[in-house]
Each structure stands twice: as structure tokens, then as C-alpha cells.
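Session log. Operator J.P. requested a structure for one protein chain; no other inputs attached. Running the standard single-chain path with C-alpha cell output.
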Amino acid sequence: MSVTPLSMPTPGNTSGYPVRRFGSGIVWTLLTVYGILTLYPFYWLVISAFKTNEEFYSRPFGLPGKWNVENFSNAWESSKLGTAFGNSLVVSLGSLILTLFIAALASFILARFQFRWKGLIMTFFVVGMLIPIHSTLVPLFILMKQMSLLNTYWALILPYTAFALPTAIFVLTAYLTSIPRDIEEAAFMDGTGLWGLFTRIMLPMSVPALSTVTILSFLHAWNDFSFALVFINKTDLKTLPLAIANFADGYQTDYGLTLAAMTLSVIPTIILYLVFQEQVMKGMTAGAVKG
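Structure written below.
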């Protein structure tokens, strides 16, 4: 009886190896090209932030002849970006905290309990994801005026929270539904109440989904221009997108200062994503394979 050594591959095991290797090479090549195309706009933004207006027009895609670092300091001082940064942080973090608190409580009830009208409530939140936010500008403006909330932080925090809640509840409910019931039953047997189950077990286990909601909600509030333009008129309350828009007027645009300000505005979002990047993919894919 002949014995085939373990170190010698059989022909049946290697027949498809070149094909798999070639297919893997194509996939990685396409992903590399896609990554380059995705990152190039950010690269162009950064290098253009160091150019003068003349260089921007004469060499739009080339490196700057002189790296004008003073563009950043001029942009920061001329448009009061420090105040705008603070306003954007207050509005974005305020709406984010409200969104996480309300969405976590609502998702816990929808995912772990059975009650009447549960399907209707879930449908209500899903339909909320389909409403174009800009179609509500006029009604919200009238409502904010009647409530005397115009030119306040609440004029932005409340709408941002309302439009972030449907997506947040949808993501969190899908994640919490995928958690086994055995964990919940074991917690009840140990004497844990509903609030303890929510704060000590469900919230720590739903960190990936909470990270996803954090990224989506923060980016929406941080980058929004329309609501801030309509609801905020005071200079001291203007957010970052409104401050950046000040570099353009009816006659010309200072692209060096504009792109420098845009580069500074992107930094917090990059930091936020780097902090939560590992949890984001877990949160986006959680519950996707649950039957």
C-alpha cells in the first residue's frame, strides 16, 4: 500500500490554483484602482489648499510651486473659523447625543419585546428614511419661528436628531435582534432588571452598531448647509459650512483660502472615522445574515 506524503500536493488540489490566483489578482487590482480614485479628490483638496489663486488656475492638478502655509491661518482668522468650529461641534454633538439616547431606547424595545402595532411602528420609521429632508425646510422654518427657536442651537439640533433617528433605529434594531435570547434569560435569572439589561448588557454589546450610527449622524450634522442657512442668521451662531461659504461672493472666489478651510473642516470627520473604523463594518453587517 502506497502512502502519499502530506507535503506533496495532489493534482486535484492544484488544478484550480492558477485560476484562483489570477482571479484574486484581478480583484485586488480593481480594489486598488478604486481606492486611488476615491482618495484622489482628498489628495487634490490638500495640495490645492497650499496654492495661490494664480497657481490654482494655471496648475490645477500640479503640486504648488510654493507651499503657502499661511493660507490656513488667513482662512482661520478672516472667516472666524474658530467660532464656526465651536458652533458645529455644539450642534453635531448635541444632535448625536440625543440621537443615540432616543434610538438606543426605542431599538431596545422594538428588538427585544413583542407588542401590538410593533410592525406599524417599524414601518413608520422606515418611511421616515424616505422623506427628502429639504422638502421640509419651509414647514420647519414656520414651526421654528412660531416656537421662537430661530437663531438658536436648538433650531439645528432638533431637526438633525429627527432626520437621523429613522436610520439609527433601523441599524440598532437589526443589531439588537441578532443578539441571542439566552443572554437575556441568563441576565434575568441573575436578578438583572430591564434597565440593568439595557445599560450593562445590551449597550456594551451594541457598540459596533452605535459606532455606525455615530459616524452617520455626526457627518450629516457636520456637513449640513441648507438647514443652517435657513435657520441661522446671526454671525456668532454660523456653522462651519456657512463660514466656508463666506470666501465666495458675487464677483470672485479665493480658492486658496476656501480649500484651506475645507481641509481644516475635514480633519474632525477623518479622526472620528479612524477611531470607529473597526466597529463600523461590524455594525453595518450585523444582522444581515440573520434569517
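Operator note: Residues 4-8, 287-291 have pLDDT under 50 and may be disordered.
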